[in-house]
Amino acid sequence: MRQGGAAGTRLLAEPRAYAIRVAKMRQLANLGLHRKCGPVRAIPFPFALPTRHPRVALCLRDVAWGSPMAERGRAPGRAQGIAGTWPPRSAAQAGGFAPSDFRAWSTFLEKLRAWVRAEAGAGRLLPWVPIAFGTGIAFYFAADHEPVLAVAAVTAIGLCVAAFLLRRQRIFPAAVMVAGVAAGFAAATWKTARIAHGVLARPAYSVSLSGFVESRDIRERTDRFVLRVTRIEAPRLQMNLERVRLSVRKGTAPAVGSFVELKGRLQPPLAPLRPGSYDFARDLFFQGIGASGFVTGAIKTLDPPVEGGLLLRYAAVMQDMRDAIDARIRTTLDGDKRAIATALLTGRRDAITTPVNDAMFISGLGHVLSISGYHMAVVAGVVFFAVRALLALVPVLTVAFPIKKWAAAVALAAAAFYLLLSGAEVATQRSFYMTAVVLIAVMVDRRAVTFRTLAVAAMIVLGLVPEALVHPSFQMSFAATLGLVALVQIGMPRLFATPENSAAAKVALWGGRELVTLTLASLVAGLATTPYAAFHFHRVTPYGVLANLAAMPVVSAVVMPAGMLGLVAMPFGFDGFFWWLMGVGIDWMIVVTGWVAALPGAIGRIAAFGTGPLIVASLGIVLLGLLRTPLRWCGAAVLLASVIWAVVVRQPDVLISGDGRNVGVRGRDGRLYLMKTAKDAFLLKEWLAADADERPVGDVSLTEGVSCDDEGCVVQMRDSGFVSLSLKPDGLADDCERAILIVTARPVPSGCAATIIDRERLRRQGAMALRRTRSGFFVDAVKPRGMNRPWAPAAEGEGETEPATPTAHPTTAPRAVDATPSDADLQAED
Predict the structure, then answer these.
(1) The pLDDT of residue 823
(2) For residues 269-292, b (16+ Cβ closer than 10 Å) or e, as one string?
(3) How many CA atoms lie within 13 A of 500 on its CB side?
(4) 246 in Cβ contact with 264 (< 8 Å)
(5) With contact defined as beta carbons under 8 Å apart, do 130 and 461 qualify?
(6) Residue 476 three-state SS
């Protein structure tokens, strides 16, 4: 306390403040500590607390009258005292640990403890529950073999009961997190056991099939449908398949709900094209599909021997509705405009041409094509405000009834219809659940946009569809929504908390606030989804904010409202104008995407970096979004660490396809060079994208330095070693002498010094990525040794995997099965 200062005046006027100070000095004295106190003007002792402690009495005497033991201050006329028991300043400095440093460290620790207590306060636990639940699901998908359902379920139940019993203990948050992890693990295990079905392991030819058509997709070049199999016959096929996905010539797909009979060629579900890439087989497994292929010959429509069931009739009704909408749009629009309009209303986006589709994703507008939170919010919001405005025209209803809640109920019904019409994909389900929670909150007079709303929606989606966790749409959708909710709850109030007469308020009157909001929303959503776009699609969108600012206002104000009005007017025959208006907005969006995609540096290529950096980046996003105190900036440090990790990941030296017909080798310039004996544009495109290589699949430079003849191909690695793709036994002897790695389907001579990757090993382990080390090659396979999951069953007779080191191989030829269909018939993605 300084003499004559404002603090002394407040202390004289507030006895409670003086009493608190004396109580603190008493506590310090009882602990045997010392405390500074300075003399002030005479303070009446009726305001002081009586004390018998000698040190406190001494300090009180110094505070009241000043003390000869106190050291006078620097400035004349202003005294600053130190208690007589405090050592001189020089002694404190000479001691090596200054009291001021101790107090600064103590203050920091106290702030840190306060932040932690604030983060663990009431109401902060719920948003972390879906994080724990999702972590358990991630552990399930990381397992090498299928867990035991009974053990997982009993463990989850026991931990949930324990967490409930500990609800009044300090360890309750930790118990809830552990129980959430166990519950997520058990939920994913139960879902897999519930939908378990057969998966084709080998190609099957001349397969006779009959069954019900459950769904149909119209694509750019071919159509595709899912068949629920009632009968399947094929040579040497001894398993039953519940569903298969078949491609047909464009315009020949049968109607949904019909019973058909056909012949086709079936392939196992497409495995990852390289270690760490997207698992198409897992995706198809959770859709109940055990094989894919194409139809050979004509499709016969027959009378069904049994009823298809209620769900099939529902699917037929919804498909007929989608076809009717598409037919009405087709009368006014054509080309990509018609395809995009159909995608926005019905969810069918396969008919969009490849150039426009690529431009949409390059420019950062690809999210418009996937019905998610934005579309659901626009539908619910337009219906809500329109219904409320109409009801407000009746004064009696406005005064006597809660028209806001009525409007919310109608908007909820409209959102539910939109969910069913669009096919109810995972992203659409997530957006509907969150929209439903928001509208229900409006109806019960609760705050709508909160982290709890997002947490409830996440728990519903993960509880019903655990496999959604590993899908790009779920990851990007929830990351963007988390960022937007954090922006609304944390950033927006501070941004717009300005006086009404300030410059910011004047700018807001001219639409500046809406422009800033749209800019920040696009920026936050784009940054939140960047790690997932880089992981799954190996690219980022540098101009995403620019494209969204230019196109999204038109989509929100013209395209989506016109589409909704077209749906309403369609039964009455007045929908043509609205489809035309919708096409005008879509034209503008296509122009914007083409312009942005053509800008220099619009394609931000990112090399594959594995799941480790992605997990770390997800943790950083969660910390930035959910934490409220300055501790949230730890998330920025975690994100930075993930970026550094992703950049320093070493790319493989050799890539081998699952059938051994394509081999990519990294040359001295760091780029991939390809040895290929079969054309697989889809595979090569994925390899080049994962390598951040901008060369197209047909670029002649991909085969520079590759020497090929009738016996095989040879290419040199960047460390001067040679890799051989051997086709005939005649050249194997020479390859064993000169090459360090041989990929072949032929028997290898005994004593071969090279590392051998044969057809049998590829059949067991799938595609491989090899990195050369001092002791040989480190092999990263799609199916490591011991892996056996329902969507990727272990090969028959699989034993111990050979090490990737020089070994001698027997001269007997392994059994080889041709797994490649005709290029003229089968598309790469099928």
Answers:
(1) 56
(2) bbbbbbbbbbbbbbbbbbeebbbb
(3) 0
(4) yes
(5) no
(6) helix
Strands (E), 398-440: none
822 φ, ψ (degrees, to nearest 5): -65, 135
Give CA–CA dist 526/521, Å, rounded: 8
Q: What is the largest CA-CA distance in the chain?
A: 112
Distance CA 197, CA 410 (A): 40
CA distance 152 to 599: 52
Using DSSP, state whether 604 is helix, strand or coil.
strand
The span from the CA of 664 to the CA of 650, in Å, is 16
Q: Yes or no: say if 200 and 167 are a contact pair by the CB < 8 Å rule.
A: no
DSSP 3-state of 523: helix
Count CB atoms within 10 A of the CB of residue 685.
14
What is the model's pLDDT at position 473?
Answer: 83
Please report the pLDDT score of residue 15 as a whole number.
Answer: 52
pTM across the whole model: 0.78
Kindly state the tokens that stand for 601. 């540096």
The Cα–Cα gap between 375 and 397 comes to 30
Please give the order of strands across the beta sheet that includes 707-709: 707-709, 712-716, 722-726, 741-744, 755-758
The torsion angles phi and psi of 215, rounded to 5 degrees, stand at -155, 165
> How far is the C-alpha of 113 from the C-alpha of 221, rounded, in Å?
62
Angle between helices 451-464 and 129-142 (to 10 degrees): 30
With a CB cutoff of 8 Å and minimum separation 6, the contacts of 45 are 64
At residue 66, the pLDDT reads 40
List per-block mean pLDDT (blocks of 10 residues) for the chain, which spans 830 residues: 43 51 54 42 40 43 40 42 44 46 76 83 85 96 93 96 91 93 96 93 90 86 90 85 92 90 92 91 92 91 88 89 89 88 82 85 84 81 90 87 91 91 77 85 79 87 91 87 84 57 54 70 86 90 87 88 91 91 93 91 88 94 90 92 93 91 91 86 91 89 88 86 87 85 84 86 90 88 89 66 38 37 52
User: Helix or strand or coil: residue 556?
Assistant: helix
Distance of CA 292 to the CA centre of its chain: 26
* Alpha carbons 224 and 247: distance in angstroms, whole number: 4
Distance CA 423, CA 346 (A): 7
**Bridge partners of residue 270, in order along the sequence:** none
Q: DSSP alpha helices (H): ranges in 99-171?
A: 99-119, 129-142, 149-165
The count of residues in the chain is 830
Taking residue 672's Cβ as centre, other Cβ atoms within 10 Å add up to: 22
Residue 25 CA: distances (Å) to CA of 16, 45, 58, 60, 194: 14, 16, 11, 9, 68
Strands ordered across the beta sheet of 672-676: 672-676, 662-666, 654-656, 768-773, 776-781
- What pLDDT was estimated at residue 463? 92
CB–CB of 716/735 below 8 Å?
A: no
Angle 691-697-698 from CA coordinates, rounded to 5°? 145
